[in-house]
């Protein structure tokens, strides 16, 4: 009976991990550019309590014997990179990607990726993210010397100079990786490249100026996950209680 205690405890611990993941998703439902994560499970090794004889006989179709499962464990957490809603803003430096791809952010010489396009100009006229790290692109000097900055769907930046002429000022680069699910989330809506994700490559995707991509968290889906996790936790806890009562009865048989 002790095996059922370990099995039930694995269900409790795994259910708690699911609740933790759902809580993280719901907490970020209003975070621009946030991508929901999903917890994946796998069953543990099976104990072979009784082996069938003559398994090597030709054309034998019987089952392999008596196998008892030993519970469950989390196997991985993956990000869902589906498109979030496009929310229009009044900020000309708010940018949203329609389709695949990421903005590049340079931090301490490292290329990081993000879907959060809430950018602004720093004191030197450089386009940066909320933490002050520059957006990867090719720019011709400071953007502070120009007015009516426009960023088209290809990421080309233009502005009106002192002579009243519209001038091309640079271009914003977009990147993608062969396996986005292999990216490592490091907080602040940033992802770092890993060996599993593959190296980033420049791509072309439409960019919408004056808009941000909202979170792709589906509240109804998360509430459903939360309810299933709660029921699983309750069932596993009940199994622990039942096993404890059965063991108590077994111990009392000697009296």
TrEMBL record:
Residues 5-35 form the Flagellar basal body rod protein N-terminal domain. Residues 96-158 form the Flagellar hook protein FlgE/F/G-like D1 domain. It is found in: Bacterial flagellum basal body. Residues 208-253 form the Flagellar basal-body/hook protein C-terminal domain. GO terms for biological process: bacterial-type flagellum-dependent swarming motility. One of its GO terms (cellular component) is bacterial-type flagellum basal body. It holds the Pfam family Flg_bbr_C. Its main location: other. Belongs to the flagella basal body rod proteins family. This is Flagellar basal-body rod protein FlgG. It comes from Anaerobranca gottschalkii DSM 13577.
């Amino acid at each position: 009976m002790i095996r059922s205690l370990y099995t039930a405890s694995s269900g409790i611990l795994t259910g708690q991990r699911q609740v933790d993941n759902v809580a993280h998703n719901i907490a970020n439902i209003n975070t621009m550019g946030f991508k929901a994560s999903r917890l994946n499970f796998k069953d543990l090794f099976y104990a072979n309590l009784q082996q069938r004889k003559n398994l090597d006989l030709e054309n034998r179709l019987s089952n392999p014997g008596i196998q008892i499962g030993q519970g469950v464990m989390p196997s991985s957490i993956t990000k869902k990179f589906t498109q979030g809603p496009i929310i229009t803003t009044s900020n000309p430096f708010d940018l949203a990607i329609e389709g695949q791809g990421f903005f590049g952010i340079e931090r301490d010489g490292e290329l990081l990726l993000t879907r959060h396009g809430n950018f602004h100009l720093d004191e030197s006229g450089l386009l940066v993210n909320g933490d002050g790290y520059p957006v990867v692109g090719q720019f011709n000097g400071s953007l502070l010397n120009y007015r009516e900055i426009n960023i088209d769907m290809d990421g080309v930046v233009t502005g009106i100079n002192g002579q009243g002429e519209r001038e091309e000022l640079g271009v914003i680069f977009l990147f993608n990786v062969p396996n986005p699910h292999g990216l490592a989330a490091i907080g602040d809506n940033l992802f770092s490249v890993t060996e599993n994700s593959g190296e980033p490559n420049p791509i072309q995707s439409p960019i919408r100026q004056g808009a941000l991509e909202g979170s792709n968290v589906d509240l109804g889906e998360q509430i459903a996950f939360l309810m299933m996790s709660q029921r699983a936790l309750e069932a596993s806890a009940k199994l622990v209680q039942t096993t404890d009562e059965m063991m108590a009865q077994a111990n009392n048989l000697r009296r």
